[in-house]
Write a structure and sequence with these properties.
- By secondary structure, the chain is an alpha/beta fold.
- It has helices at about 10-25, 25-45, 50-65, 75-85, 100-110; strands at about 90-95, 115, 125, 130, 150, 155-160.
- The protein has a four-stranded mixed beta sheet with strand order 2-1-5-6, covered by helices on one side. Strands 3-4 form a two-stranded antiparallel ribbon.
């Protein structure tokens, strides 16, 4: 055991000191490996996730909530923007398709409006105790009978009336 003046000051250095003395590894080698590990981590920082995260934050600030649909096609982004601008807070928006993916992102962005599966539509035009949204995107001219249903897939949103 080393004299009291030579005792390590932290738990980590104590562990390294114990490892070096028990295994016969020179402490200079352990220190060099530790310094190399720290330098390797610092060298990766600028090219790693840090810069990507800064770019993602900048893109989000420019695009707003539509940033969540950045991997979707142009029609998905246009429909999502129109829905975010058009659906009132007290309405229910009917959906069908996969809940994961584009619909999973749309739901929280529409809050306090809610997404309700189209099978929950009541005869009086309500779903989950709320009036159902009945708008029609202006670029989708055609039959406006029935109730609008947002169709969801992994990366895309669609629109139809049922």
């Amino acid at each position: 055991m080393p004299p009291a003046a030579d005792h390590p000051k932290s738990r980590l250095t104590g562990l390294l000191y114990g490892l070096a003395t028990r295994c016969g590894v020179p402490s200079a080698l352990v220190a060099a490996l530790l310094v190399g590990h720290v330098l390797f981590g610092l060298a990766r920082l600028p090219s790693g996730g840090f810069v990507k995260r800064l770019k993602a934050v900048e893109e989000y600030q420019q695009q707003g909530p539509l940033w969540h649909f950045r991997r979707g096609d142009a029609d998905t982004k246009r429909l999502a923007k129109w829905l975010l601008d058009s659906v009132d807070a007290n309405h229910a928006l009917l959906y069908d398709g996969s809940e994961q993916g584009a619909l999973q992102k749309l739901g929280p962005l529409l809050y306090p409006a809610i997404l309700v599966h189209y099978r929950a539509l009541n005869h009086d035009g309500t779903a989950a105790g709320r009036p159902v949204f009945t708008g029609q995107p202006p670029w989708l001219a055609g039959d406006s009978s029935g109730y609008p249903v947002v169709l969801g897939s992994l990366r895309a949103l669609g629109w139809e009336r049922r």
